[in-house]
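Q: Sequence in, structure out?
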Amino acid sequence: MCPSNCNIKKKKYKHINYVERTQIERWYNIDKKSKKEISELLNKSERTVRREIKRGLVDNLTYEWKEIWVYSADVAEKEYQYYLKAKGPELKIGNDYQLVKYIENGIKKGRKSPEILIAEIERESLEFKVDVCAKTIRNMIKLGTVFNIKSKDMIYRKVYKEKNKEKRVASKAPAEKSIEYRPKEANTREEYGHWEGDLVIGKEGKGAVLFTLTERRTREEIIIKLPNKKAENVSSAIDRLEREYKRIFYKKFKTITFDNGGEFKRYEELEQSCRRKGKRLEVYYAHPYCSGERGSNENNNRLIRRFIPKGRCITNISEEFIQGIEDWINTLPRPMFKYKTSLEVA
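A: Exactly. Output:
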C-alpha cells in the first residue's frame, strides 16, 4: 500500500465552545495576537476565527475614556446560543428508510405529487416511523438532503420553441358553434356528459397523435391513438366510440368543446351519427388562443406528458402503454375531489 494513502483521517470540524471563546478573548485583547496566530492555536481556519471575533466585538471605554473595540466571550456565547435555538430540531425523516423509499417510488415511478402520496398514506392507514406533510417533502426535495429525486422528476421539462417553426393559424369557427352558446349544464359542470377535446402531438408534429377527451365534471379521460392529425381521423375516432358504447354513447357524450384547429373544423361530420339518423352530440369551439376555456383537457394532457414528453415519437408507442396512461389518470386521487379518483366521482 502506498504510504501516502494510509492512515489518512478526514478532519472533523466542531463549533467553537465557551472555553475556546475565553481563550480568544485573552489572546486577542491582552496578548494582541493576530487572527492567523489564534487560528493556529485553536486548530481552526482563519476564516472561522474572523467570523467569531466579529460576532463578539463590543465597544468599550478605557480608563482614558477612549473608545476601543474588544472581543467579549460572553457576548459571542449569548449570540451563538440564540441562533442555535432558532435553528429548530433536526428532521427525522431521513431515519425512516421505508418512508423515504415509498415517497421516491411514488414520485419517480408512480409519477404522483407529494400531496397525493400523503393522502394515500392516510387513506390506506400506512404506518411509518415519522409523520410528514407534503410541504416538508417538497422542501426536502428542493434542498436535496434526504430524497434521491431531481427537479426533472417533479416538474415538466422545459421545451424551447424553434425559431423557424411554422405558426399555427386558428380558423374562425361558425358563430353558432361558439363556446358562448354551450349549455349552462356544461359551463357549471353540474351534469355528466360534457367533454373537452384536443390532440397530443408527437415529434415534429409528424406521425401518430393522441386524441384526448376529458369529461368536465369528473375529469375522466379517454385517449385514442390516431395515425395522424387529419380531420377525418378525428371523425373516425368518435365513430369508434359510438359503436363501442352503442346506446350508452348518447348519454355519455352530449357536447364536446374543441379549439380552433383545422383537425376539428368539420363539425358536421363530428356531430353526425354513424348508427342512426341525426346528430349524436353537439360540438362547440373555444375562442381562439384561449386554452383556459378547455382547462380540464389541458391539465390532463400535461399528465400525459409525464409519460410521453414533448419531442417523443408517438408512432412506436403501443396501445397497451397508452391504455395504461388512461387507467393511471382515471385512478389518480385528485385534491379537488377530496382525493377521490375520477372513476369514483363518476
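Residues 93-153 form one domain.
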